[in-house]
Amino acid sequence: MIYADTSFLFSLVLHDANTAGVVAYLKGHAASLALTSWQRGELRNAVRLAVWRGNCDALAAKRALDKITADLAAGNLVETPLVWPDVLMIADELSEKHTTALGVRSLDLLHVAAAVSLSAKTFLTCDGRQLALARAAGLHADKI
Fold this sequence. Notes:
With about 140 residues, the chain is of the alpha/beta class. The protein has one domain: 5'-nuclease (Rossmann fold, 3-Layer(aba) Sandwich), CATH 3.40.50.1010. The protein is about 65% helix and about 10% strand. It contains seven helices and five strands. Helix 5 crosses helix 6. The longest helix has 19 residues. The radius of gyration is 15 Å and the shape is globular.
């Protein structure tokens, strides 16, 4: 299983500075990406927030939201359930071990803990701190 954080998924559905790298990575590593209900909600909110920030217009946001739905239908993204008590326990353990050294934020902890709880083989991100945490947690992690 491949777990991609929201920074990676955002660059997949809405053009930004990381989009070319994300697309190139996926062309070289053809596989479906896990998508939890939490990731879907965070991703959809990030697209809407991009409109508020003036980074895209409403039509581009609608296309991005439609792409999420289309990628789920096509199997590029695979609905993947989480067991939240497990995720929260792992996040607390990761926090205890790594936050003081890495400056880890809560959402970064949750993404990495989710990947660990799902026994993900690969963790994809566009965020340097999250990359460091994923590697410290023992995940094979790639930063785009």
